[in-house]
Design brief:
This is ABM domain-containing protein. It is a single chain. This protein has 96 residues and is an alpha+beta fold. It has one domain: Alpha-Beta Plaits (2-Layer Sandwich), CATH 3.30.70.100. Helices cover 38% and strands 31% of the residues. It has 3 helices and 4 strands, in the order βααββαβ. It has a 4-stranded antiparallel beta sheet. The mean pLDDT is 95.
């Protein structure tokens, strides 16, 4: 499995997360289409927030980054949020 964490902060991040919260059903439906999706979590943090995506492989995690970027460009570009800091890597332990 492979995980990717996207952290949004700074100017526009709070507005971005307001939009994300308003459209959480659409976001869920969009991300469920990512091949190999195991889990997705979106959480507020400070002046912005982060998303944590776990997929069965790196290809799925990479696709989740693309899908998230495209969704934000299409639906939340008016928030003018900075691009996220992205961290990713192989999953060592996952407890469900």
């Amino acid at each position: 499995m492979h995980a990717v964490v996207r952290t949004y902060s700074g100017a526009g991040a709070q507005q971005l997360f307001d939009v994300l919260e308003e459209h959480k059903a659409d976001i869920e439906a969009t991300l469920r289409k990512v091949p190999g999706l195991v889990s997705y979590t979106l959480l507020r943090q400070g002046d912005g927030g982060m998303s944590v995506t776990v997929c069965t492989d790196k290809a799925g995690a990479d696709e989740s980054v693309k899908v998230a970027r495209d969704w934000i460009q299409k639906n939340a570009s008016n928030a003018h949020a900075s691009p996220p800091v992205v961290a990713e890597g192989p999953v060592i332990v996952q407890i469900t």
